[in-house]
Amino acid sequence: MSRLLLRFDDASLDSFDWVISDESSSIGSGWQQGSQSQLSSLLSKHALPVVFVIPQQHVYFTEFQLPERASRQILSSIEYQIEDQLAQDTELQHYATGKDSENGVPVVVVEKSIMKDCHSLQEKYGIRVVQIIPELFLCPWQGKTGEVNLIESHQSFLLRYGTYRGIKFERHLLGPVLDLIHREQSIEAVNYYLEDEVAYEDIKIETYPANYLPVSALSFNAHNTDIINLQQREFQASSQWLNFFKAWKTIAILIIVLLGSSIYSRVLALQDLETELAAVKASQYELVKEYLDPNVTAADNLKKEVIKVLQRKGDKQGARGFLDLLSVFSQSKQVYPAIEVVKIGYQQQRLSVDFNSRKLDDVEALHATLNATGLTVNLERLNIKPDFISGQFVVEGSL
Q1: Residues near 235 by Cβ (< 8 Å), separated by ≥ 6?
Q2: Residue among 12, 248, 15, 239 at smallest CA distance from 128
Q3: Distance between CA atoms of 190 and 337, rounded to whole angstroms?
């Protein structure tokens, strides 16, 4: 079945690229530019189910390892474990999970504000959105260990080296990114999906075995079970029947009035539920008390106490990998194009990035942005001249 793919440029959702996909045809070179002002006309010409594609720089991929026979209480704590990794308020983030892989559960994190804007856009234009997906899933993945796939997207590159592993970066960082991936896992081949072989010869990194593949080989399979749809929890796709009942709101109100005769029995049922709730709270305490401090009782806020335990556990899990550090730095730097990266190094869990810039304000702003992620970031070897600034960002490999 054909679908209309809208690949947004940034978190504002004001501009996008679009293409029609029917799973058998290529989407590689068919992208066309569009904006919200043109959206009504576009939807009227193409009355198709729509897939929203969220820019990769606004998406965080990770995995949560579960013990065997994990209980519901353990599963519900996933978002708090992820909060520790992001150093951000869990209430401001939206979490979507993929299918279990052995004892690991893939998790995608995106800001709730972006998901709310997607919902507002859907309501404003009456869009039939069937999927909201991270941009990573536009890059092909055949599941071959040691292979790396690369496509061009929004004047940047999207690189995928696992089912749920990938990064978006600027062109000049391709070599350093491949080197860092190679430190983590062996690279046997890099597959370049590009417009022509001229671009391939200009871009490819000679250090690694390379293959040229035309963009015409790119397609999108919306039914791929590895794709994680962000429409989960409160952002699940609305049922068509829900819209039907909205149109018949008056009748629904009458039905509610008729159901008022059962209020008395429902009050009694609520009392029973309160008793059951007290029993559930007691059982929850029995389940987690062996992991809590001795002075914690059943009357305390068990949710906050569990978060404290997970935070302490996260602190003991060690340093973040060099690829994680580079991903955080690359995403933060995209907002400051005036800062030029000269050299990247990694040693003893420290990522060092030499830079040049003509704007001191941008350097200070990027420094503040990196520190806001929860990383320890130092600004060293700073050399300030009237029209030229150089220095080095040093990112520590732990939170």
Answers
A1: 94, 115, 118, 119, 132
A2: 239
A3: 27
CA–CA distance, 165 with 324 (Å, rounded to integer):
11
- Read off the amino acid at residue 364: E
Q: Which two tokens stand for residue 128?
A: 């039939």
Pairing of strands 350-357, 388-396: antiparallel
d(CA 9, CA 61): 19
User: For residue 346, how many C-alpha atoms fall within 13 Å in the half-sphere facing its CB?
Assistant: 18
The amino acid present at 322, given as its one-letter code, is F
Give me the residues paired with residue 344 across strands.
353
Close Cβ partners of 293 (under 8 Å, ≥ 6 residues apart): 305
113-151 per-position pLDDT tens digit: 999 999 999 999 999 999 999 999 999 999 899 999 999
pLDDT (tens digit, 9 = 90+) per residue, 42-69?
A: 999 999 999 999 999 999 998 887 766 6
* Beta-strand relationship, 156-162 and 210-214: unpaired
With contact defined as beta carbons under 8 Å apart, do 217 and 26 qualify? yes
Residue showing tokens 């990064």: 167
Amino acid identity, residue 23? E
Q: In the chain, count of helices (H) and strands (E)?
A: 12, 17
